[in-house]
Write a structure and sequence with these properties.
The protein is built from 13 helices and 13 strands. By secondary structure, it is α/β, with parallel strands linked by helices. The two termini are 22 Å apart.
Length: 359
């Protein structure tokens, strides 16, 4: 009788609401379930927005308003009890992990004697490893890490010396191209994501767009703490009449699909879903070469343009080139979908299955 290779897997995450990391986790739950694994999603906060597949344990719903030390300890005991009760073959930890005290608690108590793989979804490693480095090395000694880009895995090895690292790229979402209620111009450039400038650097995008001095408008899609700041910057640069701030869209695919091209100007990334989503919908991209992800996705002159980060002149020139050189834009557009075919859910599911069975 053949051995049953199906596993019982827990995906631990802060929440199921937010940006690309949360969308990627929802996709992962569906892929693993599709492979026949039994999937539980454990959320530490009660925010649930992205689609998922599996059994949800919403630990956040138990918090209520009591934030005392006793309540927090009870919260952690409840999580430990759930993991023990269900006897998971593997726990995949998707949390950000910057707090040393929390990570001592997780590694020494909550995950004690359990098999855990830690996801790292950003090149900013301090988001996923507490300081100091010497203590992090001891906490995670012999742990398994899964990075969403090759560069992230290399950086983990360079910084901490950990060798048990594997990279698995984020998979392409399955879109239903529904029409949006937003009124947009017929032709436009697109930038989208969380409007948090310390991460996504929309200020660079707006500044380069202004410097390009084109008639084609820019659509910025997303919500965040820096929305007003970016509106003020657009006014200051005299391009507010050419920038459309359309907020968060629950059905963004038609906006992405109909754009001339998509811009990404982040300070840092992991494996940016903005680029993957755009290319999968046939929309070419211009991205800064930030750490990490873009240079593992964008093939310069083939499916988009890759420019040095923080170089406003290079970025504005790339924007002008795509708008004014119809032949180059058409060439990159024709290659967009095929360039991310290796990121299909079928292929990434196989990568996950191979890794899970090796751990």
């Amino acid at each position: 009788m053949p051995k049953d290779t199906h596993k019982k897997i827990a995906l631990v995450t802060i929440s199921l609401a937010g940006g690309g990391a949360e969308r990627s986790l929802g996709i992962l739950s569906t892929m693993l379930s599709g492979l026949g694994h039994t999937v539980h999603i454990v959320t530490l906060r009660e925010d649930i927005e992205v689609p998922y597949t599996g059994t949800l344990f919403n630990l956040g719903s138990y918090k209520f308003t009591d934030d005392s030390l006793t309540a927090r300890w009870g919260h952690l005991k409840r999580l430990r009890a759930y993991l023990i009760q269900h006897n998971f073959d593997l726990i995949i930890d998707n949390r950000s992990r910057p707090s040393l005290l929390k990570e001592i608690c997780y590694t020494q108590y909550i995950y004690r004697n359990l098999k855990v793989a830690f996801m790292v979804r950003s090149a900013r490693l301090e988001t996923y490893f507490p300081k100091p480095i010497s203590i992090a090395k001891r906490l995670y000694n012999n742990s398994n890490f899964i990075g969403v880009s090759k560069r992230i895995c290399d950086k983990i090895t360079e910084t901490y010396g950990f060798r048990n690292t594997n990279h698995i790229y984020n998979a392409i979402p399955q879109f239903s191209v529904a029409e949006t209620s937003s009124t947009l111009p017929s032709t436009y450039i697109l930038g989208y994501g969380r409007l948090v400038d310390d991460v996504k650097n929309f200020s660079l995008m707006i500044s380069a767009f202004a410097k390009a001095n084109l008639k084609t408008p820019l659509v910025i899609m997303g919500d965040g703490q820096d929305n007003e700041k970016l509106v003020i910057l657009a006014k200051k640069l005299n391009v507010s009449n050419k920038i459309y701030f359309v907020g968060h869209q629950r059905q963004p695919s038609s906006i992405v699909k109909n754009a001339l091209f998509t811009l990404l100007t982040s300070h840092y990334e992991g494996f940016p879903m903005v680029l993957v989503e755009s290319l999968s919908l046939g929309t070419p991209v211009i991205s800064v070469d930030c750490e990490s992800g873009p240079n593992e996705i964008v093939q310069h002159g083939h499916n988009g343009l890759l420019v040095p980060n923080y170089d406003i002149v290079a970025l504005s020139n790339a924007i002008r080139m795509f708008v004014l050189d119809g032949e180059l834009l058409a060439h990159c557009k024709s290659n967009a979908k095929d360039s991310v075919a290796h990121l299909s859910q079928e292929q990434i599911s196989n990568d996950w299955n191979t890794l899970i069975n090796s751990l």
